[in-house]
Design goal:
The protein is of the alpha+beta class. Helix content is 41%, strand content 17%.
């Protein structure tokens, strides 16, 4: 094979493979110089000449191929980078960056001019990692706010239920000589629907979602009669008072007898 070398604009050769290896070993030419041989589509670095072994003083010869020495890693880096950028895999960005750097390092050691795959993998990998980080920060800020808003809505609904239950008890006592029912089950025709007896803060209790304490005739109007079994994260419950009003706040249940 007849090989021509372009070194700093000066054409050298032609060389045979053995002569080219000897010139590399003596330092007459370097692996970064451009080479062309019969049938080559374009000028490429000497290191990419098929069959060439790069000779370095004191270092064993390394066979160099015209093929990308890290094509697989470069492609893997690009695929992982695209996945991370699209949000299809939140863990793909970091591996994409690692594969990209390794691919570039191997190409550099082999004197191969990067074809852009590894660089594209690095760019998309870094971008995907930054994107996932931003989304995670936004989620960390938004989720607690959403949970607080949800709890607030549930608490307000629970207060409405507590008010309706107390009003049912009030209607009961108007037809029973001023006596409140002994239990919510004793409300009879005045008993609210199951959905009203279900506490949104503790739906697992079903229609037994509110604690009830029968007040005496002489109890003060603000006496707590109904309390939601569920509570918010800051300890607030829905409280229904004897006068038919509802409020929110902490409450300690008396010990069971």
């Amino acid at each position: 094979m007849r090989i021509l070398v372009n070194r700093g604009g000066q054409q050298l050769g032609p060389f045979s493979l053995d002569e080219l290896r000897a010139a590399l070993g003596s330092g007459q030419i370097s692996q970064q110089d451009l080479a062309w041989w019969d049938g080559a589509p374009a000028w490429v670095p000497v290191a990419q000449v098929p069959g060439i072994s790069v000779v370095r003083p004191g270092v064993p010869s390394l066979p160099v191929s015209a093929e990308n020495p890290a094509a697989g890693l470069a492609t893997t880096s690009l695929v992982l980078g695209i996945l991370s950028l699209l949000g299809l895999s939140c863990l793909a960005g970091i591996p994409a960056v690692i594969c990209g750097h390794i691919a570039l390092a191997r190409q550099k050691r082999a004197g191969y001019t990067s074809n852009g795959l590894a660089i594209a993998g690095l760019v998309t990998g870094y971008a995907g990692t930054v994107l996932i980080t931003i989304l995670a920060l936004l989620a960390a800020i938004a989720v607690p706010g959403f949970m607080r808003a949800k709890e607030r809505s549930q608490l307000m609904t629970s207060m409405t239920h507590a008010r309706q239950i107390v009003n049912a008890c009030d209607m009961y006592q108007r037809t029973h000589s001023g006596e409140f029912p002994p239990s919510l089950d004793a409300l009879g025709e005045f008993k609210p629907a199951a959905v009203v007896l279900t506490d949104p803060l503790a739906p697992e209790h079903g229609a037994n979602g509110y604690w009830y304490s029968r007040p005496s005739r002489n109890a003060s109007p603000d006496t707590v009669v109904v309390v939601s079994r569920g509570e918010t994260r800051d300890g607030k419950r829905a409280l229904g008072h004897k006068d038919g009003n509802a409020s929110m706040g902490p409450f300690t249940f008396p010990p069971e007898r």
